[in-house]
């Protein structure tokens, strides 16, 4: 029987890069992508692989117990890479229960399905849970998040991810499920839904619309190119020690306002606009409630123990990203039509 791996959330931003990467590097394996196709799931992210003989797409919800049982029975997955989640902090503030349902209940449902199918025969199996640095809370001006930093989530999104991390560890300690976890910093790159800062800013600059900056813009994030994250996920999947956690990041901190100025300079060049034109669109708006001040990852462990480090500089990654969005305006137009228009109106109306 052909060996199979289950990737959840593979039609989303990071998941689509992981599906593509695993299809290439796990030769001969069948890659099953289970995705509910919420507003964030988009099969256009995977047009280039949809006819691959080793690729199977299943539309379904990770909270659906019967579906998971039948998929595990049919494919007897050797491993799971779990990315499906509600992922946007602002949406978690307006609709926290959806985050509990998918991120907490959905993850526990998946843990149960793996445990039920695998039993105690787990030597070749692996349940990989993809998580975020936001579980560690908010840093002051100094310091970095290490794998030992105590959890201190502060938004409904990060609380739901922290909770799911705890359940994953509980299934390891209690039932011996062979788990591995990684916590990554902010990703950027192709195929990111334009509710997140960078694609939203690229889209708005392109259309001469205001670029909304929350508060004073002096919030810091640590940015990693999505393809480097997908490569790290492969490395952790193959070499990570069962029961362990790996932080993933680019040692690449930017305050939001500086990042957007850097983006504006690139956009002016690429669009042939006069220098400073795009920066005129920057508009300070009402802050996000409970806005975490600073995230920054210490990625020493994955570098020294597993030999991973980012492959591109931030300047290279940002330019590749801008090039991709400008070359794929149709992708952006498709995802910004319809329901997204209403979300955008609601989200920014009062700001
Ligand atoms: P995304 O929102 O772009 O994609 C999430 C995917 O999950 C979508 O395809 C969606 O349809 C699917 N999904 C949502 N609910 C589902 C359900 N109930 N059942 C099945 N599928 C469902 O998210 P992303 O940015 O690609 O993030 C992927 C994972 O990586 C998440 O677990 C997130 O917490 C984590 N992460 C993201 C970042 C980041 O910067 N984006 C950083 C670190 C970790
Ligand atoms: P985001 O991309 O939503 O990721 P996260 O909240 O998970 O870090 O936001 C990145 C940073 O940009 C964060 O500090 C919030 C800020 N931000 C804005 O200033 N304006 C915006 O319109 C958005 C979406 C985010």
- The secondary structure category is alpha/beta
Which outline best applies? Answer: globular
Number of domains: 2
Mind telling me which CATH architecture of the largest domain this is?
3-Layer(aba) Sandwich
CATH superfamily of the largest domain: NAD(P)-binding Rossmann-like Domain
The spatial strand order of the largest sheet comes to 3-2-1-4-5-6-10
Radius of gyration: 20 Å
Please state roughly what percent of the residues sit in beta strands, choosing from under 5%, 5-15%, 15-25%, 25-35%, 35-45% or over 45%: 15-25%
Model regions low in confidence, pLDDT < 50 over at least 5 residues: none
- Biggest sheet record: 7 strands, parallel
Number of helices: 12
Supply database-style keywords.
UDP-galactose 4-epimerase, domain 1; 12 strands; binds nicotinamide-adenine-dinucleotide; 351 residues; binds thymidine-5'-diphosphate; alpha/beta; Rossmann fold
Summed up, what is this model?
The protein has 351 residues and is of the alpha/beta class. It has helices at 13-25, 65-75, 89-94, 96-118, 156-175, 197-206, 226-239, 256-271, 300-306, 314-327, 329-336, 339-349; strands spanning 4-8, 30-35, 55-59, 79-82, 126-132, 179-184, 186-188, 211-214, 220-225, 245-248, 253-255, 282-285.
Structure description:
Strand 1, helix 1 and strand 2 form a beta-alpha-beta unit. Helices cover 44% and strands 16% of the residues. The chain has a seven-stranded parallel β-sheet, sandwiched between helices. Strands 7-9-11 form a three-stranded mixed β-sheet. The chain has two domains: 213 residues, Rossmann fold (3-Layer(aba) Sandwich), CATH 3.40.50.720; 97 residues, UDP-galactose 4-epimerase, domain 1 (Alpha-Beta Complex). The protein starts with a strand and ends with a helix. The protein has 351 residues and is an alpha/beta fold. The protein contains twelve helices and twelve strands. The model has no long low-confidence stretch (mean pLDDT 96). The protein binds nicotinamide-adenine-dinucleotide (NAD) and thymidine-5'-diphosphate. Thymidine-5'-diphosphate (TYD) binds next to helix 6 and strand 8. Nicotinamide-adenine-dinucleotide binds next to helix 1, helix 4, strand 5 and strand 7.
């Amino acid at each position: 029987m052909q060996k199979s791996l289950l990737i959840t959330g593979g039609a989303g931003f990071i998941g689509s890069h992981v599906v593509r990467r695993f299809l290439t590097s796990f030769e001969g394996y069948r890659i099953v992508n289970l995705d509910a196709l919420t507003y964030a799931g988009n099969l256009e992210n995977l047009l280039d692989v949809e006819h691959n003989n080793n690729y199977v797409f299943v539309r379904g919800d990770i909270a659906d117990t019967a579906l998971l049982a039948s998929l595990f029975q049919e494919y007897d997955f050797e491993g799971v890479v779990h990315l499906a989640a509600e992922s946007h902090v602002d949406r978690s503030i307006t609709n926290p229960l959806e985050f509990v349902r998918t991120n907490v209940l959905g993850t526990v449902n998946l843990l149960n399905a793996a445990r039920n199918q695998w039993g105690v025969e787990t030597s070749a199996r692996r349940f990989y849970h993809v998580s975020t640095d936001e579980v560690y809370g908010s840093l002051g001006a100094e310091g970095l998040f290490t794998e030992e930093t105590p959890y201190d989530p502060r938004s409904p999104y990060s609380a739901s991810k922290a909770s799911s991390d705890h359940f994953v560890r509980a299934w390891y300690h209690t039932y011996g499920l062979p788990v591995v976890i990684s916590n990554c910093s902010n990703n950027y790159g192709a195929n990111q839904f334009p509710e997140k800062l960078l694609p939203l800013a690229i889209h708005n600059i392109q259309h001469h619309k205001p670029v909304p900056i929350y508060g004073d813009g002096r919030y810091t994030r640590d940015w990693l190119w999505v393809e480097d994250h997908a490569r790290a996920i492969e490395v952790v999947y193959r070499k990570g020690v069962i029961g362990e956690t790996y932080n993933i990041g680019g040692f690449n901190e930017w305050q939001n306002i500086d990042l957007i100025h850097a983006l504006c300079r690139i956009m002016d060049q690429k669009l042939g606009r006069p220098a400073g034109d795009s920066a005129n669109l920057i508009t300070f708006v009402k802050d996000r409630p409970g806005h975490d001040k600073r995230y920054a990852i210490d990625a020493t462990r994955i570098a020294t123990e597993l030999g991973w480090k980012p492959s591109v500089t931030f300047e290279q990654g940002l330019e590749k990203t801008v090039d991709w969005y400008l070359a794929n305006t149709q992708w952006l137009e498709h995802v910004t039509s319809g329901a997204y228009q209403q979300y955008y109106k609601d989200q920014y109306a009062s700001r």
